[in-house]
């Protein structure tokens, strides 16, 4: 009871007025990182489509889809996504001094973990939706892949 009122007043006067602008500032790099995840998934699936259209090889298609399933764990391909979020380091330094925000690295790492989870979910969903279609007429496979990709991105 003794601490509640001063703490409430401190939050109301010194933190709450800044929350909207802080959130907006932090969401730039976070949104950019998640947009990069989306773009990477889109690019990788487009490469699968193009490769299949060139070769018409179902075995190669299966290999490519299997490689896609490993995309979330491919640190080289995921690195551009993670780098977008590293801009939080600079933004959070200012917050650290103004609002005593600690564990900046933890915030960045958790954001990168969420990005990896998002990619895991995307490739898993893609594989689940596409699996029944692998046996389809090879003329329809590229179209099916495109439809599944759009569904996942949606």
UniProtKB/TrEMBL annotation:
Q: Which domain of life is it from?
A: Eukaryota
Pfam families attached here?
Answer: Niban2
- Sequence ranges assigned to domain Niban 1/2/3 in this UniProt record: 10-154
PANTHER family the UniProt entry points to: NIBAN FAMILY MEMBER, PROTEIN NIBAN 1
**What protein family does this chain belong to?**
Belongs to the Niban family.
Protein name in the entry: NIBAN protein
Organism, by scientific name, is: Anhinga rufa
